[in-house]
Sequence to fold (210 residues):
Amino acid sequence: MPRSRADVAAPPLRTQVLTGRDIAPRLDEVARLRIAVFREFPYLYDGDFDYEARYLQAYVDTPDSICVLALDGDRVVGASTGLPLADEDDGFQQPFIARGIPVDEVFYCAESVLLAEYRGRGLGHRFFDAREAHARALGRFRWSAFAAVDRAPDDPRRPSGARDNDAFWIGRGYERQPGMTMRLAWKEHGETGESDKSLTFWLRRLESDA
Fold:
């Protein structure tokens, strides 16, 4: 008898690593993906395509940036970005300067976004593997870092049964850094304008894998 859909293994997804100006042809697809995924909790982002295109242009203009794509056929269903912290805005750099960590020694893993139907298939590890390997290959970074938005455990907008990513990040060797926070402004769904949000950095040493 025919197998049900649940009995059929999902086809493997492929990943593609792009750097610097090679990201440009996929920029619009990544912008739309970010808007679609970040509208979910915890970011609740009311995205704007023109802003996204301008934001992502920084990765095109930064030679040592990386964008890891998850592809279903030729369709972009996930993306993960990173660049040297020295090429980020001052607001990202200040918590490191205050902690006494040289900005030039930090590779910033910016975001990972993946459509819901493709989650649970190992893409999160592949995204981090590729970005950390890229940072080590550049040869000048001691730290890998990212920032996660702070939301209260009892936030009423948290979906029932939702889990955070802390266990995954800790398993990757990252440690949350209380006090290393920054403020970013974006418009949430339901807001009339942008408001500041708090994000806390997570760090891991890269040379431990060298």
